[in-house]
Write a structure and sequence with these properties.
Layout (H helix, E strand, L loop, with lengths): L17 E7 L3 H16 L6 E8 L3 H10 L4 E3 L2 H5 L6 E4 L7 H9 L3 E5 L6 H14 L3 E4 L6 H11 L6 E9 L23 H16 L3 E9 L4 E3 L5 E3 L5 E8 L4 E7 L8 E8 L2 E6 L5 E6 L11 E4 L21 H16 L11 H20 L3 E2 L3
Parallel strand pairs: 1-2, 1-4, 2-3, 4-5, 5-6, 7-12
Antiparallel strand pairs: 7-13, 8-11, 8-17, 9-10, 11-12, 13-14, 14-15, 15-16
Helix pairs in contact: 1-8, 4-5, 5-9, 7-9
Length: 393
């Protein structure tokens, strides 16, 4: 049937470069990553390739099929071994709980897939090192998905530092706070860090601010840490008491190789805080500050401001076309959301694969993931010993 004035597009004949995607995990992160792949062609006028959602995998057949249908995957698997062996897939994206990052990611690399893995890279330093060694041996691209590197305000902060706008960096302070476990009566199943893999707060969200410290200020030389579990016993839904060993709160003092110092704090018992991720950097010429709950703005104070009477922190709306990682489909002043960090991150990885570009320094590689793992272990060691611990990678 022909309709006057209607020009039909024959998609079968259009030469669009595609890249096959396989995602392991259909939970929160699996959905976030699937959404990001779908939005890459809508966000970028000329994306490096159009992600083609080949398959998603999960153990629960009914739930993984539902996710596959909703995001228009070609199909699904219920065994990750079959997913990593699918020849149509070029990028393997591991969005599983922390305890399933290790083996599937290594197997995917051995099958020639380029690998993205959610943070933290692994449960232990030895697992992270094995993952790093295997992706290097396989010669594939690899990225640990520290998505906050790809928030435009964070990237602008990195640019200001690279341009020398802050002068000598003196201090870095950051915290990542949530309230999920603040109530001692809350059942264990509702406290993400105390159930499932029982990874704890340092692994779960502390890794993000460690990554920010390294990404913005530089390599960490030594740490002094304190790790605490306040609610050592919780009842589960069935009413049975469970012993909780996962950490609920931690603080750390940092010494950077460039001479700067810093503090980190992550917590799952900060009553009233939903997902507060903030940091501030003080330099000899300027200071900058960021709050994830206000992610379109970077707060900047510079002593080089020409009018002394109005010197103070400027609230920069990072939504202009000349800002890094500008959301191309949005006009100036139109705020991007939390999901754009993942859209920019995954597009970066797709571009690195398609055009054979290095993932670093803007993307976090498995090397970064491994080093973060070493730092987290050092914070725990410092807490146990009461002593400062120097990094040994």
């Amino acid at each position: 049937m022909s309709i006057q004035g209607f020009f039909e597009i024959d998609y079968e004949t259009i030469d669009i470069k595609k890249i096959g995607i396989g995602v392991l995990g259909y939970g929160f992160m699996g959905k976030v990553h699937s959404n990001a792949y779908l939005k890459i062609p809508y966000t970028y006028e000329t994306p490096p390739a159009h992600p083609e959602l080949i398959a998603i995998c999960g153990r629960n057949k009914e739930r993984v099929e539902d996710t596959a249908r909703r995001f228009r995957y070609r199909g699904f698997y219920t065994e990750w071994q079959r997913l990593v062996g699918d020849p149509r897939i070029q990028i393997f994206d591991n969005c599983t709980p922390d305890n399933l990052h290790h083996k599937p990611s290594i197997a995917a690399a051995e099958n020639g897939k380029h690998v993205i893995c959610e943070k933290p890279l692994a449960l232990t330093v030895s697992q992270a090192k094995e993952m790093l060694d295997n992706v290097k041996k396989a010669g594939v691209k690899h990225m640990c998905c520290h998505n906050y590197r790809f928030i435009p305000a964070v990237r602008l902060a990195r640019k200001l530092i690279e341009d020398g706008a802050l002068g000598t960096i003196y201090q870095f302070r950051a915290h990542y706070l949530q309230e999920v476990g603040h109530d001692p009566a809350e059942v264990s199943e509702n406290v993400w860090y105390a159930t499932g893999t029982k990874s704890g707060v340092l692994l779960g969200i502390g890794c993000h601010i460690i990554d920010m410290a390294r990404f913005l200020v530089g390599e960490i030389r030594a740490v002094s840490g304190m790790v605490k579990t306040f609610n050592t016993v919780r009842k589960n839904i069935a009413g049975k008491e469970e012993t909780i060993s996962a950490d609920e709160c931690n603080v750390a003092l940092l010494e950077f190789e460039n001479g700067a110092i810093g503090t980190l704090e992550s917590s799952g018992v900060s009553t009233g805080r939903k997902n507060q991720h903030t940091w501030e950097i003080n330099g000899s010429k300027a200071s900058i500050a960021f709050d994830l709950e206000d992610l379109n703005h970077l707060h900047v104070y510079s002593v080089e401001t020409p009018v002394r009477e109005i010197m103070g922190f400027a609230n920069i709306s990072v939504t202009e076309a000349y800002h890094p990682l500008h959301a191309l489909m949005l006009p100036q002043g139109h705020n991007a959301g939390w999901e754009y960090g993942h859209i920019h991150a995954l597009n970066h990885f797709v571009e690195c694969v398609v055009n054979d570009k290095p993932v670093e320094p803007y993307g976090a590689t498995f090397e970064d993931g491994y080093r973060i793992q070493v730092i987290m272990k050092a914070i725990e060691q410092s807490s146990n010993s009461g002593r400062r611990v120097e990094m040994q990678y």
